Amino acid sequence: MSLNTISFVLKPRVTAEYSSILPNLARWLGKRKKKMLFDIKDEKRVLKALKKIPPRLEFVEEAQIHTESDLIISLGGDGTLLGACRKTHKQGPPIFGVNLGKLGFITEFSQFDFYEALEATITGKFETIKMPLFRVEVFEKNKAIFKSYFMNDAVINKIDISRIFTLNIEANDQQIYSVSGDGIIVSSPIGSTAYSLAAGGPIIHPAVKSLVLTPICPHSLTKRPIVLPDNSTICLKIYPTNGQVHLTLDGQEVIEITNKHNIKVKKSSGLSARLIKNPERSYFRTLKEKFAQGKVSIK
Question: What is the set of active-site residues?
Fold first, then answer.
């Protein structure tokens, strides 16, 4: 199986770091007669990086990136890759994540040594890691007014950090607890090494099918993080409070919520992201390197 149409997802509003990698990559793919697709919104900065358009390169609408390609190459960091994953379709193409910044936790490949793996990938010699997406719905008077997805985490917190607020949290129609504090994080195993970890949550291996509820600075010694099966239906509701409360998905999509809203989180039955696996990469080695960058030694 040969992958012939390659799409690109780029980090928003960045041009300089693409001036070296894009010309070489476009030339490399051009020699292999691959069709290349870029989001039409990125046309100006892609042209600036490439200087001229090589053969078989097209600018298309964003939806076509996910529906008309055999492979997506994400060039950026974990945030860029998360953005690509959140827009995946039921039969979306696999995603090849290339990290252009510091250590990427879910971007599998380094910008300095990915060509050999990409050669294998476009000729059909690859394995994928399947990452579930979780659906978030916001209801008002039993009517859904918002629906979206996250792969890392959903965060409910208050803009005015000097004031606490209270949430009621249920799983499968059973109350877990009401918690007062700065908010709550609903995290997947992949997201467990991000904001949830900083808030005191556990590290969960990606193979463990779970969700983590991590209170943010709870005003109680007994309201601790809890790990639930990932097929749980989680319902959250805030009590009346002064000030704005936001629901944020993967740090990329934000909606204001009030005590009039009910928030439901559930694993998507039809959507998941497929990431190209780096055979030279180990989860525990990456974990160790990530903590080493934070000056924490794990031996």
Answer: 78
DSSP 8-state secondary structure symbol assigned to residue 51: S
Q: What is the pTM of this model?
A: 0.91
- Report which residue type is found at 49: A
Pair (265, 144) in one structural domain: yes
Residues 142 and 162 in one domain: yes
Each residue's pLDDT tens digit, 207-262: 999 999 999 999 998 999 999 999 999 999 999 988 899 999 999 999 999 999 99
- Name the one residue in this structure whose structure tokens are 């439901």: 264
The 3-state DSSP class for residue 68 equals coil
Residue 162's Cβ-count burial label (10 Å; 0-12, 13-18, 19+) is: exposed
Long-range contacts from 38-44, C-beta under 8 angstroms, 24+ separation: 38/7, 38/8, 38/10, 39/8, 39/9, 39/10, 39/65, 42/8, 42/10
Range of the domain at 100: 5-127+277-291
Q: Looking at the domain assignment, is residue 296 inside a domain?
A: no
Q: How far apart are CA 90 and CA 88, in angstroms?
A: 7
Return all residues near 159 (Cβ < 8 A) that are at least 6 apart: 243, 244, 245, 246
- Locate 255 and state its tokens: 């909606």
Q: Where are the alpha helices (DSSP H) in the chain?
A: 18-31, 43-50, 62-67, 78-86, 115-122, 195-198, 283-293
Give the model's pLDDT for residue 270: 84
Instruction: Show the tokens assigned to 30.
Output: 């051009």
One domain, residues 121 and 141: no
